[in-house]
Amino acid sequence: MPEIAPGLSFSLLHAPGNLFSSYWLSCTLLMIAAFCLIRTFYKRLDKNFKSSSQTSNIQVGSLLLNQIQPTVERPAPSSSPAKKNMRYTKNGRRVKAKKIKAPSTTTLVAPPCIEKTLQPYEFFLVLDLEGTCKLGTDFNYPNEIIEFPVSILHWTDRQEDGRAETLEVLNEFRSFVKPTWRPTLSDFCTELTGITQEQVDSAPHFLEVLNKLEAFLVKNGLIEEGTKKRLRRFCWCSDGPWDIRDFFVKQCFISQVEMPSWIQGDVLDVRFAVQHWVNSETGPHTKPGLSKISNGVRRPSLNISAQLKILGLPAFEGRQHSGIDDTRNIAKIVTELARRGVRLVPNTTIYPGRRWRWMGKHGQILEDCIP
Ligand SMILES: *[C@@H]1O[C@H](CO)[C@@H](O)[C@H](O)[C@H]1NC(C)=O
Ligand SMILES: CC(=O)N[C@H]1CO[C@H](CO)[C@@H](O)[C@@H]1O
């Protein structure tokens, strides 16, 4: 039969009533119906597959995010508390930071930040000076430096583009210093700092300590021998602004020496940086440490112990107000800030020419003007 080949329209038009044609018509109709059914079925299947593959993509994405995060060892700046807890436990740290509440507006869809922070400085010189003091005196007193510790921190993973996150102690310097104006320590001072009269009596004077420190910086490749110019980009760090801004500037006046160029410049007040980090994590309305007004600037009052605690680090190691122990604990705080992706740059201006009322001529201390 030649009618077979032309198909449906031919048989409908030309073969009504014909038994054979009606057989083919039913067959064709059945086939069309079957085709339509199969097509609809596959369309549904395809739709389901597409939508399910989309959700599985999301799951894979978040799984990947969770898997990447701990191995990268650095939280996204606005990461969720869940991610943070995971990191702390992985690093075996106490999960103290639970106290820092993430703002309620934090969304879970924060993009993963796996890039290390750009760190413009190569080295960090942490120092925590101890000075003579009397009960009831403040930072306006002519304090003389009695302990001078410095801890050098350097990056172990700084890339060529300046990105880094891991700091390590490179070297330490420590010397006691013999005071000249008031060579006898008060009981209060010894109790506070743990520094004994014998320790300062047998210590070199400030100028000699400066020379030793200079030699130490030369040995570590930070300054040039002779010219004393900076060879590397380093930043001085201290807990609060007092060490260099007050103690060091006063001591230079008393010892009648110019402030060395290698210690001039802005410094990183670690306490201020920690407070800044806390505010950025919790929002500006929750301040764990009350701010104090100092020199017209709002300064946080978080002591070293409180900073360690808020960063989820182990408790203070050593003796509080011992210069070297304070320095080592501050170094840990700086290291932790770096690990958390804080850009470590100076945040405090130092004026080498700062003067106090008791400063007379040629390093003379005017006793009548001491507060
Ligand atoms: C540090 O601050 C905390 C809380 O503000 C306080 O309890 C503690 O006594 C302080 N420690 C020192 C050594 O001043
Ligand atoms: C002098 C200086 O560098 N100050 C900076 C201290 O840190 C705050 C907060 O990061 C900056 O805004 C200041 O410019």
UniProtKB/TrEMBL annotation:
Transmembrane segments: 20-42
Stored Gene3D superfamilies: Ribonuclease H-like superfamily/Ribonuclease H (3.30.420.10)
Domain of life: Eukaryota
Record key words, sorted: Exonuclease, Hydrolase, Membrane, Nuclease, Transmembrane, Transmembrane helix
A GO MF label: nucleic acid binding
InterPro entries named in the record: 3-5_Exoribonuclease, ERI-1_3'hExo-like, Ribonucl_H, RNaseH-like_sf, RNaseH_sf
Protein name: Exonuclease domain-containing protein
Entry-linked Pfam families: RNase_T (PF00929)
Domain Exonuclease, first and last residues per copy: 123-343
Entry keyword Hydrolase: yes
Organism: Agrocybe pediades
